[in-house]
Amino acid sequence: MGQSIFLVALFAVFCTTLCSCCSNPQVTSKSFTTLDATIVSNVAYISEFTVKCGSGEVGNLYAELDGNVSPVSIVGPNTYQVSWTEESKSARKGDREVRLLNEDGFTAFRRASRANEDISAIPSLFSVVINHPGAFSGPWLQSEFIATILSLAVAYFALASRSRVVA
What is the residue range of the signal peptide feature (predicted)? Predict the structure, then answer.
């Protein structure tokens, strides 16, 4: 009798754990990146996304980008945010895919990274794409340089014209 109660309780815990995972997630996201790098040294990437599950709950999420994992912030009901910065010189243009892992995916990621296995084979819960069109880092030529060249050109033509008039 005691063994059957234990088996029923174990089955109930297993079913609860199995059913509490998010299945068929629907994700809507919006993103922001730094567009003007003239006075900043880092480019910020921010993605805010809303997740609706077909069944179950999302739970804790972890973002994986370029082999690094960081926790995802909860900013509201079913709303999450992931952000990071990169130096403006090394920030690349284009789409950046951020893979989002649940607790099981995070555990598998840590296990694979410790064993030096391929981490791209770990299935993600879903992915979010952030587009970075590039950051403006100022004009190619500084205005002071252009002003100096123009003043030297004007002075040269003035002196050349004066020497022709005097001669």
Answer: 1-21
